Amino acid sequence: MTKLRRAFENHLILKRYSSKTNEAYILAVKGLANYHQQSPDKLSDEQIQDYFRYLIKDRKYAWSSCNVTFCGIKCFYDNVLHRDTKIMIPPRPRQKTLATILSPKDVKKLLESCTNLKHRALLYAVYSAGLRVSEVVALKPIHIERSRKMIRVDQGKGRKDRYTVLSDALLTELENYWREYRPEKWLFFGKDKSKPMPVGTAQQIYYTAKKRARITKGS
To answer: What is the reported pTM?
Structure first.
């Protein structure tokens, strides 16, 4: 076992990740190293990004598989090598989220139509992080892992915990929202701060914003 792998495994154990997540993250870094036939600490951001192009174009990785690999590699570079990598993967396809597929232009119009910070932050989280409506209203402040640029989604589809990417733009939106609303137990609360926003309320926020933005396509 290499020194880097031992350090990564120790980090995952201390962070109390599940054994399944540990295995997936270790395999993600191993796959990257094997692809380039180099130790991961020797790889440039361009080489790491090239690996994701390979997974998407040649291996035909589904978004969920690519996201797990991304989270594993990002976790390794952030916490073992203490290196801020500038890598990314394409955003999650918008099927089965709060709304049907909208063009980037329509998404921009939708977000710009929101003058309420809370509503804008919620919709931004849906479209930036690829969250379902049931997932976004279940978020808690502790799920926003700023240092790792990740969002933990507890008991998502299939009752499996997962991670998704926290973009810089979304982080800025959430920080603006936080300063104004000071959420406590739930990131997006309803009338009572001790309870999460109802799914129906989140859906209505979307429909209202869509109508204000004069977007006619989509559900």
So the answer is: 0.56
Give the pair of three-digit tokens for residue 113: 């139509």
Any idea what the Cα angle at residue 31 is, between residues 28 and 36, rounded to 5°?
135
Question: Which amino acid is it at 6?
Answer: R
Q: Measured between alpha carbons, how far is 4 from 152 in angstroms, rounded to an integer? A: 25
Residue type for position 139: L
pLDDT digits (tens, 9 = 90+) for 127-183: 998 888 889 999 999 999 988 889 998 865 555 678 898 999 999 999 999 999 999
Q: Which residues in 69-194 belong to E strands, given as ranges?
A: 144-145, 150-153, 162-165
Domain 3-79: state its class: mainly alpha
Residues listed for the chain: 219
Q: CA-to-CA distance for 100 and 219, rounded, in angstroms?
A: 6
Q: Which helix (H) or strand (E) holds 35?
A: helix 19-36
Integer-rounded Cα radius of gyration of the chain: 18
Domains of the chain, residue spans: 3-79, 104-212
Name the residue among 19, 49, 23, 16 with its Cα closest to residue 35. Answer: 49
Indicate the class that CATH gives domain 104-212: mainly alpha
